[in-house]
Amino acid sequence: MALEFLGIYPNTPDDGSPTIWRDTDTGDLLIQSYKAGPEDIRAAQEVGSIPGHTTDIPDHEFMIRLPESMIQFIPRPKDEDNSGGNSGS
Which residue ranges are recorded for the region named Disordered (predicted)? Predict the structure, then answer.
C-alpha cells in the first residue's frame, strides 16, 4: 500500500491532530480524527440514513468527527461537476 499525505489540521500542535491520507492504489481515504462521542452517535441514529438500513455501528467500524477545516483536504472525484449541489433533483 502506498499512501499520499493530503493534509493535517491547521495550526496543529505536535501530537494527535486530525490528518488525512489517500491510498494511491485504491483512492480510499485514511482519516485520523476525533472519535465521535455517544451524543454524536445518538444524533446520527435519530436522523438515520436510508430506509431499512440499520443505524447500529458494526464492531469493525467507528464514527469519527472531522473538523470543517479539514474538508478542504478531501479530494473530489474527477467526474464531479463542482457545482456544489446535488444534481439528483
Answer: 1-20
